[in-house]
Amino acid sequence: MSTVLSADALKRAVAEAALAHVRDGEVLGVGTGSTANFFIDGLKPIRHKVKAAVASSEATKLRLEAIGIEVVSLNDVDHIGVYVDGADEINAALEMIKGGGGALTREKIVAALADTFVCIADDSKWVSQLGTFPLPIEVIPMARSMIARELVKLGGSPVYRNGFVTDNGNVILDTYGLDIRNPVELETHLNNLVGVVCNGLFARRPADVLLLGGSAGVRTITR
Ligand code: 5RP
Predict the structure, then answer these.
(1) Which residues form the pocket of ligand 1, taking CB atoms under 6 Å from any ligand atom?
(2) Which atom number of ligand 1 is nearest to the Cα of residue 36?
(3) Which of 9, 11, 183, 223 could form a disulfide with 5 if both were Cys (CB 3.0 to 4.6 A apart)?
(4) Helix (H, G, I), strand (E, B) or coil at 218
């Protein structure tokens, strides 16, 4: 019989399952958000296994340091074994929308250097097509209106994330209504708009492993 678990219980379950992916003596990449925070909490008893970590945000850096894990700059690392992070939406190809917490650019950079991207998510994030969650797009502040007009031309409705500044000093346009039937194509197109720093589509570099939490337990899905 399956039990209905709270969203936090599901996040904790997938975070705990991800601990099995932490490799002894390697540099670990750590994501941002409430699910990633449960993962960091779970790292505490096994922190001796982690040589050092690369953090995808200032918030994650502080949290890792608070439990005694050394955080190093990506510039001092040429290899990350495993990157563990959450997602706002994920599909069967393990393509994702990320950036609800505003850390998309650093998350995408850390993911790019990782051998294995382990996504941890509760089953509310599982979708057949990406795009119900508004796509976060990080832009250089002076390009905000210009990019917003380009997004409208693409059929999107961009909403300026008021009062939010990314760790990189930029702003975010949360964009509703984009047609994301071809995530790789749209990610590439958005990357090419001058003034866009990064977009929250993780399709060119999807996750390798998904730990998906539901009332029946944690399912492992691989590409
Ligand atoms: C932050 C992210 C997060 O991974 C995403 O927003 C999911 O967050 P949560 O685990 O809190 O649901 O991309 O930029």
Answers:
(1) 31-35, 85-88, 98-104, 107
(2) 10
(3) 9
(4) strand
